[in-house]
TrEMBL record:
Belongs to the peptidase M20 family. It comes from Nocardioides pini. This is Allantoate amidohydrolase. The lineage of its organism: Bacteria, Bacillati, Actinomycetota, Actinomycetes, Propionibacteriales. Gene3D superfamilies: 3.30.70.360, Zn peptidases. Keywords: Hydrolase. It holds the Pfam family Peptidase_M20. PANTHER family: ALLANTOATE AMIDOHYDROLASE, ALLANTOATE DEIMINASE-RELATED.
Amino acid sequence: MAPTSGFEEMWRDLAPVGRSASSGGYFRQPWTTAESELRSWFAEECVARGLAVETDGIGNQVAWWVPAAAAGRRGVLTGSHLDSVLDGGAYDGPLGVASALAAVDTLRARGFEPDRPIGVGVFVEEEGSRFGRACLGSRLVTGATTWDEARELRDRDGVFLADAVAGAGLDPEAGLLSLDRVDTFVELHVEQGRDLVDRDVAVGLASEIWPHGRWRFDFAGQANHAGTTRMEDRHDPMLTYAMTALAANKQARLAGQRATFGRLSVEPNGTNAVPSLVTAWLDARASSDEALATLVEAVERQAHDRAERDGTRLDVTAESVSGSVAFDPDLATRLASLGGWPVIPTQAGHDAGILSDAGIPTAMVFVRNPTGVSHSPDEHAETVDCLAGVEALADVLAELARRRDPA
C-alpha cells in the first residue's frame, strides 16, 4: 500500500471522523469510537510509509523512521494529539499529526537521509475533555502522573479511566511508551490566538507556555421551592457562583490575565427548585506562576466572602495545574533562523510543555489561524498556511536530524 500523496489527502480522510452533523464541531474524546478510528488511521498511514508503529497500554503511539546511518542513535520526535475538546475544532491536535507525516514525505521527496531517527507520535487525552486532566498521555509517559493516580479518575458519566481504557481494548499492564530514545521533541500546532495574523506571517516558533490550571469550585447551599421560598430566606449557591464568575472576569481583566468558568453542574437541576449544589470549573492562565497564584487567590477570596453573605459553603480543589514553561531559547533561535520566523508565547497548554518539563529539549511550530478562534467549530487554518507549516516542520526536522557529534 502506497502512502497518501500529501497533506491535503490526509486532511480529507480526517475531516469526517467524529464530526457533529448539527454543529460542525468535533467530538473526538479519548477511548471512544471516534478516537479509536483516528488511532487506526494513524497506524495505517505509518505502515504505508514503512514506519513500524508502537501503541502502548493506554493508546499513545509512535512510529520511527530509522535509516541505516541513524540506527542506535537517539532521535527527534514530532507529532501532537488526535483528541478534541467537546464540540471542538478540526485543527487543534490533528494538524500536528498530519503535518508530521507530510513532513516525513517532504524530506524523503527531497532525498534527505537523516543521521538520527525521526519519530512521529500521538499522545492521548491531551485536552483533558473526558477525564479532566490535561496532557494525561504525556504526563503518564514522563512520570508526571502515575497510573495508580490516573486510573481512579472518572468522566462525567462516572466511568473510571481504567475501565474506559480496557473498554477500548487496551491494557495498561502492557506498559507505556519509553522516551529514552528521544533527544528532541518538536510539536506543530495551529496557533490559538492572533499573534501571527497581526504579524502577517504564516509560521512562528514558541518561546514559552503561560502557566495555567483547572480548579473545581463546589458551592453548597440549601435546596428549596422556587415559588414558596422568600428571596431573603434562601441559601442559593447559584448566586454565589454567579458573583464568583463576575469576580473572576474582573480580576483577570484588571491583571491582564485569563479566567474562565466554562463548565457547570447543578443539583438538583430543576427549573422550579433552588439548587443545593453548584459545581463550576475555573480555567485560569497568567503570564507567570506568581501572577497565576495571585489571580486564583483573589477569585477564591471573593468567592468565600460572597458565600458568607449568601449563607452558602465553598470548597475549592485544584484538579490540574501546570507551571510556566520556557522553551530552550537557543534552540528556538537556531530553528527560527531557518526561515526568519518570529518566536512568540502561547497561552495554551501542550504536550510539548510536559516533555520540556521532563528535561527533553523541546520546540513548537505554530501555523497561522486567520481568526484566532480555537476550541470551537470555527477554528481554521488556510491550506496554503498548513502547507507552509509542513515545509517549515520538514526544515526543522532536517536541521535537528543531522549528525552534530560522533555519538
